[in-house]
Amino acid sequence: MYVIRSHMSTGITQSPRPSSSRFRWTPADIALGAALGVGCGLVFWGFNFAYTPISSMLGSILPGIASVLHAVWYFSGTLAVLILRKPGAAVYVNVVGSAVEMLLGNNFAFGFVFISAILQGIFAEIPFAVTRYRVFNLPMAVLSGLCTALEYGFYLLFFRYQGVALLSPRGIVHMISELVGGALIAGVFSWLLFVAVAKTGALDHFASGRAVHVREE
Description:
With 217 residues, this protein is mainly alpha-helical. The protein has one domain (5-216). The chain contains seven helices and two strands. The longest helix is centred in the first third of the chain and has 35 residues, at 27-61. The two termini are 21 Å apart. InterPro entries: ABC_thiamin-permease_prd. The chain crosses the membrane at residues 30-49, 61-84, 104-123, 135-159, 179-198. Residues 1-22 are annotated as: Disordered.
């Protein structure tokens, strides 16, 4: 058992006494993660169709700025950790989501999709892992989104945007846009979505849902 403390001034949710039981996955965690992954996979798949025309339009205005939208493909990692609060949650949900996306069909290579999913999940968990999965709040969500954006931004430069130098105008715009998207979409949006879902009572059987209700008291 562990105690959840709420700090109203910062929105921090902590478990003051680390326990190995907090890190154990239950059947309910696995089922919820799978459901979350399927839902996110549908979002990934649908966004594949919207991204091409939108990115072309944005690219004609300022090359590289379309990267601000990439976080739609990796917000799932931060959201997964906020909801499940278990090590590996981001990787698990990302991989399930990517599998759904691939089954439905997309234009990206199998290796690119799954390697990206795993790397994004690992980087999304870094801020939470540093706190031993004890702190869950908006600043942590934003940090998670920024870490993922940083990883994905460099990943694209090294393996997809060959010929685009980091310090070139397009490279700079790309990285700034990636970080902004990571902070706002993967960070702020994921936090707001998590809180909204928790307030419906759908997460009452999980520590994350109970913590939201504690903050409201």
